[in-house]
Structures are given as structure tokens and as C-alpha cells.
Amino acid sequence: SRTVLDSGVTLHFRARIPTDGTLDQRHPDGNPGSAGPQAYPTTGDGYLIHDGGKGNFGIKQAAGGVISFSLATATDTGSQAGLVMNNLNGATVSGTVDSGEAGTANILALDPIQWHEFWVTIQKDNSGKGTHQVDIYLDGSTAPKTFVVTAGDGSDFTDISYIAMGVGSTGQSGALDVDYFDYKVGALVPGGAGGGRPTFAKPTLSGKALTVTWTGGGKLQEAPDVTGPWTDVTGNPQGSFTAQATEARKFYRVVAP
Asked: Which of 48, 77, 206, 251 meets the CB 3.0–4.6 Å disulfide criterion with 99?
């Protein structure tokens, strides 16, 4: 699909940063003044998001936008080890979503030199914060860690959707052990997990009392028009809310917390 990120897709992979076995030396990129081959770090050599949203595991939609994931050490990020992904930097596709750039960094903290299984769902974000919502089910968990990201404008092939795995042509060095990498169209939760993003049930009207109910958590917002402005409903109701239908019209939505 040309809009596979917007309509929903699931990525599934198992990987680690290697620290044992046969490991080659690192070779700097050959610029003048290079120090030559270097020993592979005993703590591992991770990778970051680069070049407009590219990384170790990524998916790009033909309609525009790429979202990627990389395993990084604390040395790579300068702060925290884990699975890094596109920064949150606005609600439109951007070239400024890479690690260390503008916006809010997104990282799932973990020990990257241990094997981890990542079940990742991606779908369009409707909160107005970013372009997409990413839910990560780590190592068989049925409770996701949720992130809002901004899709990057990086692309290796024009006018097609594709998935990618590896390390890019950058000044970075990095190593990765991969057990498997697969995908399926649709934002599919693993067995035993909840139903994903919040979902409205059919509203009910009793006299002038309008009741809206929903599942999946989230924050209820209201607006006088579908285009907004949207404001949080007082009291932050959870799962159900009743309002008096005294106005000509009013709109409700549920956004991820």
C-alpha cells in the first residue's frame, strides 16, 4: 500500500548488539587523518537514526514518510541504551527526526547486548502531536510501550513502499545480530494483548443525556466543530462520559495519553 504506515503495519524482529564471537575491527571511513583500524568496543557498537529517519529496521510508505528503529548503546546516544526510533518533531513528515536532532528523543530503555524480541505496530497518529503512533510489545509482553513519532523524509527508492534492514552509508560504525525480521500489513496486537488504540462504541441518547463510551484508555476531548479547537473534557473521564445535549452540535474524540 502507498499508505502502509498510515493504515497500519506490524514489524516483528529479534536482535541484539554483539559483544562475543568473531568480531571484526572497526575501519574509519578513510578521511584524511584517519587513525586506521580500531578495536571493536567490548561494550558493543550500536547505531542511530540517520538521514531523515533511516535505521537498522525501517519501513517507508510510497506516499511519504519513513520510520525506523536502531539498537544503540549509551555511548552511541550519549545518555541511555535501548531501541531508538524517529524523534517526535511535529505532525508532518520532516527531515529533522534523527538521533541528536531537534524534537523529542524516543527511546525504549533496555540492555541492547542481550537478545530481545520486538513486536511493533505503527499507525497514523490522530492526536496532532506527531505523524504516527508506535506501540512496542517487548519480549512477549502483552502491554505495549507507546511512542508518538514523526516520520522522516529519507528514501532509497522513489514511489514505492519498502522495508529495510541493515546499517546505512554514513560515518557511523555499527554491528547487529539478527535472528529474524518479518512484517504483516495491519496494526496487529500479539495474542493476549488489548485491542490497540482507543475505540468508541455507539453513543446513546436518553432525553437530553448523551453518553459516549470507549475502550482502550486515552483522554477524552471535545470541540464545537470537527476541525477544533479541541479541549480536554473536565475531570478526565475514563471509558464513559455523559453530557447534556443542549447545544446544536458538539464533537468528541479520544487521544492516546
From this structure: 48
| Ramachandran assignment for 8, one of left (phi > 0), alpha (psi -120 to 50 degrees), beta (any other) | left
Residue with cell 513528515: 93
pLDDT in tens, 151-209: 999 999 989 999 999 998 888 889 999 999 999 999 988 887 765 567 778 888 899 89
